[in-house]
Specification:
Blueprint (H helix, E strand, L loop, with lengths): L5 E4 L8 H28 L2 H27 L14 H28 L7 H21 L8 H30 L4 H28 L9 H9 L4 E11 L5 E9 L8 H13 L5 E7 L2 H6 L3
Parallel strand pairs: 3-4
Antiparallel strand pairs: 1-4, 2-3
Helix pairs in contact: 1-2, 1-4, 2-3, 2-5, 2-6, 3-6, 4-5, 5-6
C-alpha cells in the first residue's frame, strides 16, 4: 500500500519581460538597418569579411525575431491539446537559431575558400567605417539584453550573438585597416574564416543546451545533486526516488519525484512538509513541482513508479 497523495506547485506566470520586449524591437530594428547597409557596402566593395559579418547579423535579426516569437508563445495559456501551453517554443527558437548559425558559418567558410583563388580589390576605408558602425550598434543592442539573459537561455542566446557580433565587427575593422595601409587583401578571407570559427564556438554551447532541453534533459541552471540534498534536508523526509527534472520553457523548470516520509510522520503533516520542499526548490530554479508520497521505496518499486 502507498499513500498516493500528490502535490502540484505551479508557477504559470512568466517573468515580467516588458523591458525585454522593448529590447527585442529596438535590437531587430537597428540590426535590420545595419545588415542592409553592410550587405550593400560589402557587395559594392567586394569585401567577403563584410558580407560574412552581414550574414551573421542577418542571422541575428532572424534570431531576435524567432526568440521574440518563442517568448510570446511561451507565455500563452495552456489548452486541452497543449496542456503545458506553448512553453517549449522558446527552447525550440534557440535550437533553430543555433542550427541556422552553424549553417551560415559553413557557408562563409566555403565562400572564403573560393575567394582564396581570386582575391578582389577592396576599399579598406569603407570596410573600416561600416565595421565601426557595427561595433556601436551590436554593443548597444547586446547591452539591452544584459539583465534578461541572466535568467533565460533564449534571451541569453540573443545577448551572446550580439556581443559576438560586436567582437567580430572589431575583427572586420582590423582587416580593413590592414588592407588600407598594406593592400594585403588576403586578410579579407582570413577574417571571414575567423568569423566562421567565432560563430561556431559561440553557438556550440547554445546548440548543446537547446538540444538537451528539447529532449527533456536537466536544465543547466539546476544542480541535480543539490536538489536531492535539498529535499532530503527537509525534516521527516526519509528517502526520495524517481526524481525527474526538465525545462518547461527557457525560463521555467519542472520536477516530479516520489518521497518517503519517516514512519512516525502524521499524514496530516504531509501537505505542510511538501509546501516546505516546494519553497526550497523554488530557490533552486524549479518552479513547477509535483510530489507523490510513498510509504516505502519497496512499495514504489513494486508498482514500477
Amino acid at each position: 500500500m502507498s499513500t498516493s497523495t500528490k502535490s502540484h506547485s505551479h508557477a504559470h506566470e512568466a517573468p515580467d519581460f516588458s523591458n525585454v520586449n522593448r529590447a527585442f524591437f529596438i535590437g531587430i530594428a537597428l540590426n535590420s538597418i545595419f545588415t542592409l547597409i553592410e550587405f550593400i557596402v560589402g557587395y559594392s566593395t567586394n569585401s567577403l569579411a563584410l558580407i560574412a559579418d552581414a550574414s551573421h547579423n542577418l542571422s541575428d535579426v532572424t534570431s531576435l525575431i524567432l526568440s521574440l516569437v518563442g517568448l510570446k508563445l511561451a507565455q500563452k495559456a495552456s489548452t486541452r491539446a497543449y496542456t503545458y501551453g506553448y512553453k517549449k517554443a522558446s527552447i525550440l527558437a534557440s535550437l533553430i537559431n543555433s542550427i541556422l548559425l552553424v549553417a551560415i558559418a559553413i557557408n562563409i567558410s566555403i565562400e572564403g575558400i573560393e575567394r582564396l583563388n581570386s582575391l578582389p580589390e577592396i576599399a579598406g576605408i569603407a570596410v573600416i567605417t561600416t565595421a565601426f558602425i557595427g561595433v556601436l550598434i551590436n554593443t548597444f543592442s547586446a547591452f539591452l539584453f544584459y539583465k534578461g539573459q541572466q535568467n533565460d537561455i533564449n534571451i541569453k542566446g540573443a545577448f551572446l550573438h550580439l556581443l559576438v557580433d560586436a567582437l567580430v565587427s572589431v575583427g572586420v575593422m582590423v582587416s580593413g585597416i590592414i588592407m588600407y595601409y598594406t593592400d594585403w587583401n588576403l586578410i579579407d578571407p582570413i577574417i571571414s574564416f575567423i568569423i566562421a570559427i567565432v560563430i561556431l564556438i559561440s553557438t556550440w554551447s547554445l546548440l548543446k543546451e537547446s538540444l538537451k532541453l528539447i529532449l527533456d534533459g536537466k536544465p543547466k541552471n539546476v544542480d541535480f545533486n543539490k536538489v536531492q540534498e535539498t529535499i532530503l534536508s527537509t525534516n521527516q523526509v526519509k528517502d526520495i526516488h524517481h526524481v525527474h527534472i526538465w525545462a518547461l520553457s527557457s525560463f521555467e523548470n519542472a520536477l516530479t519525484a516520489h518521497i518517503v516520509f519517516k514512519e512516525n510522520t502524521p499524514v496530516e503533516e504531509y501537505e505542510t512538509l511538501k509546501k516546505e520542499i516546494k519553497a526550497k526548490l523554488a530557490k533552486e530554479n524549479i518552479s513547477h513541482v509535483t510530489l507523490e508520497v510513498d510509504e516505502s521505496v519497496e512499495d514504489c518499486n513494486e508498482r514500477t513508479c
